[in-house]
Amino acid sequence: MRITIIGTGRAGTSFAGALRNVGHQVQLLSHFELGLVHSPDVVVLCVPDDEIANVARAITPSRDVVLAHVAGSRNLDVLEGHPRVGSLHPLMTLPSGELGAQRLLGATYCVSGDPVIASIVESLQGRIITLRDDQRTLYHATATAASNHLVALLGHVQRLATSAGLRLEDFLDLSRRALEDVALVGPEQALTGPASRGDVETIDAHLAAIPEAERSTYVALAHAAFELAERRSSRIA
Question: Are 87 and 28 within one domain?
Answer without folding.
Answer: yes
